[in-house]
Design brief:
This protein is an alpha+beta fold and 89 residues long. It has helices at 15-26, 43-53, 71-81, and strands spanning 3-4, 11-12, 31-32, 39-40, 59-60, 67-68. It has a two-stranded antiparallel ribbon with strand order 1-2. Strand 5 (59-60) and strand 6 form a beta hairpin. The chain is flat.
Length: 89
């Protein structure tokens, strides 16, 4: 069953996704970060932003000066920049 927005042609497979779409795309909700100029219409995006940009628990690369807020980002960085690719032959 498809759920269609009554304000635009967007359709969704779940009613909760339609409701979030209506709140964020057609509502006047605006959430602002208290520490910088970042704004969004979604609470989950604000939380992700705050965790990534403002938490003090930074993960530091043991190979260079790279720092990030999430361990999975550090793992991706190390694989991309510091691990030697395997020889495909």
């Amino acid at each position: 069953m498809a759920f269609t927005c009554n304000q635009c042609p967007s359709t969704f497979t779940e009613n909760k996704t339609l409701n979030r779409h209506i709140r964020t795309k057609h509502g006047n909700l605006s959430l602002k970060c208290e520490k910088c100029a970042f704004t969004t219409t979604r609470k989950d995006k604000l939380k992700t932003h705050i965790e990534a940009k403002h938490y003090l628990n930074k993960f530091k690369c043991p190979h260079c000066a790279f720092e990030c807020a999430r361990n999975d980002s550090l793992t991706r960085h190390i694989k991309a920049y510091h691990e030697v690719p395997e020889n495909p032959l």
